[in-house]
Amino acid sequence: MVTCYVRYIIDPYQLTEFEHYAKLWIPLVNKFGGTHHGYFLPYEGANNVASCLFSFASLAAYERYRTDSMQDEACLAAYDYAVRTRCIVSYERLFMRPVFE
Q1: Cβ–Cβ under 8 Å, residues 50 and 4
Q2: Does 95 have pLDDT greater than 90?
Q3: From residue 29, how far is each of 13, 33, 39, 61, 101 by CA, in Å?
Q4: Structurally, how many domains does the chain consist of?
């Protein structure tokens, strides 16, 4: 299993728009075989940092999702929404593996 952690720098004046964007992506990741663990929005402290976590069975499965999502109308519409609203200033991805007992 590989888990992707995405750290976003968001426009704090576009928080409602970013939350809408987040709600669009959760079912889309699941649609392509991933497990979305949710988005995390600013609450206390920095008002411009958000994150999300989602997992795929393997890095190859994640790469298939990336390729297939670039052809999916709903994914393209979600991406376009973020571009139009400018709710995301920047982001970075980290790939991690979970440790269990």
Answers
A1: no
A2: yes
A3: 26, 7, 12, 11, 27
A4: 1
